[in-house]
Amino acid sequence: QVQLVESGGGLVQPGGSLRLSCAASGSIVSINYMGWYRQGPGKERELVAADTSGGVTDYADSVKGRFTISRDNAKNAVYLQMNSLKPEDTAVYYCNARIRGFYRLGDYWGQGTQVTVSS
Known about the structure:
Helix content is 0%, strand content 57%. The chain has strands spanning 3-7, 10-12, 18-25, 30-39, 46-52, 57-59, 67-72, 77-82, 91-100, 105-109, 113-117. A hairpin with a 6-residue loop joins strand 4 and strand 5 (46-52). The model has no long low-confidence stretch (mean pLDDT 95).
């Protein structure tokens, strides 16, 4: 079936940048939605940024102006460019997608990638 594979997490100093990548693979007909969520220590999972096939984007207030979501439909991939990172951005970041295969529509999650912002 369909799988999402994430990469790009790591340790970065405050004010630094990271670029997260997520690629979907498998029997994919179309991807209706791709987005990024995160879950920090002791916090609930929250939406960070979302991008639909129609080009509509949505960002959490805490990341507006600093993060940018983008998609490469040819690669079935979504990216999250994170600039001006703050310690509060420390979390596990998850890729999420709604994907139509040959026979069904399903929701998929990546394995999560750790982002740590610290001096």
